[in-house]
Amino acid sequence: MTKYDVVVVGAGIIGIAVCDELAKRGFKVVVVEKNPKIAEETTEGNSGIIHGGFDPTPGKLNAKLNLVGRKLYEEKWFKELDFPWQKVDSLVIALSEKEKEAVEKLYYRGIENGLQPSELKILTQKEVRNLEPNINPIVDSALLCTSSYIVDPVLLTYALWNRAKANKAELFLNHQVTKIKESKTDFLVTCKNLDQEVTFTCKKVINAAGHYADEIAKMIKAQDFNLIRRRGQYCILEKTEAQTLKNHVIFLVPTIYGKGVIVAPMPDGHILVGPTAEENIAKADTRLVDFKHLKIIQKLGKKIIPSLNVERISKLTSGSRPICQETDDFVIRYAKHNQNFINIAGIKSPGLTAAPAIALQVADMIDRTRKGEK
Ligand SMILES: Cc1cc2nc3c(=O)[nH]c(=O)nc-3n(C[C@H](O)[C@H](O)[C@H](O)COP(=O)(O)OP(=O)(O)OC[C@H]3O[C@@H](n4cnc5c(N)ncnc54)[C@H](O)[C@@H]3O)c2cc1C
């Protein structure tokens, strides 16, 4: 039986980014994934925005990793990896005087989070309409952020996987982790592969199982967090609708629909409208779409760009944010009783943006315990 340094559970953007970083550092690493393909869960059902970093609550881990992660995209991933991305500024639009207060708050929050004043600007109605002439004419003002990007998260995950594979990482698809046994020196990670059981021996385990991270942690009594799910549904419009936008991701100010509903260009030329924010979703329903919410998304899309033809639907999709109930923040820590097991959980938005920073942080944690072993 092959013995690995590290088993990573889950081949979403987080598990694959961590695997890539560990393989680069010379670890013998394997990823086990229950699905037949990588990046089929939350990594596929999101807005695909690399956020500037003005939105997260200052002081939270996700605020810090947003900024570090975004800079790592700029300095490393955009240069080193072959995947579709574009620099696209973002606008958070205020449609009333009252919403302008929210836009101003976001500006100051961005500065508190470490953005440079040169990356953020509050625009007047005239300036907004010059940038995006088809925007709702009742627009009052907007927050412009010049350090955001759009990416294809699935193709990014494949690009990372290709690099990890070149560095001798391994991947087993259709392998669902069902049991983890720990001994003094090793872990035995058992997976269900069709009708067979396959067991991997390793020194360290990284739990990057998304919505199932709680269940994986429970297998070694290391579940010190609880997860809930908030679903977001999207409507992807035909490429013809791209003519209504110049080149911005346009957010409504955050409301009950979460961090902000957007109308945004996609790297493949389609237009993305959504997401909703539906609470208390069952694990089996994290990628469900329904027609009731389609109407809401279409209405919100037209609120941003009235001339958008929201009937020209190419695809409906969805994803759910895994949320740590206790902290509403990312969980990235060793199991309390065993530093060879690391939980990465509650990776809601901006997890895609933070992915390179999470990978570095977790690889450093693994390095630290390896040095302790010598
Ligand atoms: C609506 C929405 C919009 C978002 N927009 C943005 C955005 O614009 N920008 C941004 O930065 N972030 C955004 N995010 C957040 C981002 O999508 C997530 O943080 C990120 O995708 C999380 O990736 P992950 O690898 O942790 O999870 P996942 O992609 O869910 O991967 C977990 C993997 O683990 C596997 N797995 C589970 N259980 C097992 C098991 N027992 N055995 C083996 N494998 C298992 C799953 O099959 C899955 O492939 C958004 C999220 C949502 C839901």
From TrEMBL:
Residues 5-365 form the FAD dependent oxidoreductase domain. It comes from the Bacteria. Pfam families: DAO. InterPro entries: FAD-dep_OxRdtase, FAD/NAD-bd_sf, G3P_Oxidase/Oxidoreductase. PANTHER family: GLYCEROL 3-PHOSPHATE OXIDASE (PTHR42720:SF1), GLYCEROL-3-PHOSPHATE DEHYDROGENASE (PTHR42720). This is Type 2 glycerol-3-phosphate oxidase. It comes from Spiroplasma platyhelix PALS-1.
